[in-house]
């Protein structure tokens, strides 16, 4: 359940945060605030999805248990 809630953070950040940062000023790294917000959430989404993958018990199987062989 906690992993599902963690996975919804990017959705909430992008969809619900945009109306609050829909401004040009301040410029962040030469980008308007709205663009910097979207770029930030793209990067955060990759990190959150990686954390979710590592913490998901379904992905805890080793290669031997899942039938994979090493060559």
Molecular structure report:
This protein is an all-alpha fold and 71 residues long. 55% of the residues lie in helices and 0% in strands. The protein has two helices and no strands. It has helices at 2-17, 33-55. Helix 1 (2-17) runs antiparallel to helix 2. The chain is elongated. The model has no long low-confidence stretch (mean pLDDT 83).
* Tally of individual helices: 2
SSE ordering:
HH
Based on CA atoms alone, the radius of gyration comes out at 18 Å
Task: Please give the share of residues in helix.
Answer: 40-55%
- Overall form: elongated
Q: Uncertain runs with pLDDT below 50, 5 residues or more?
A: none
Q: Quaternary arrangement of the chains shown?
A: single chain
What is the total tally of β strands?
0
Please report which band the strand proportion falls in: under 5%, 5-15%, 15-25%, 25-35%, 35-45% or over 45%.
under 5%
What summary fits the major beta sheet? none
Look at the helices and sheets and give the structural class: mainly alpha
What is the CA-CA span between the terminal residues?
A: 37 Å
Mean pLDDT rating? 83
């Amino acid at each position: 359940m906690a992993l599902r809630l963690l996975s919804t953070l990017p959705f909430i950040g992008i969809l619900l945060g945009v109306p609050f940062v829909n401004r040009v000023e301040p410029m962040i790294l030469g980008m308007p605030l709205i663009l910097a917000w979207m770029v930030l959430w793209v990067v955060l989404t990759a990190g959150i999805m990686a954390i979710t993958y590592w913490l998901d018990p379904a992905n805890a199987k080793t290669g031997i248990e899942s039938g994979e062989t090493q060559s």
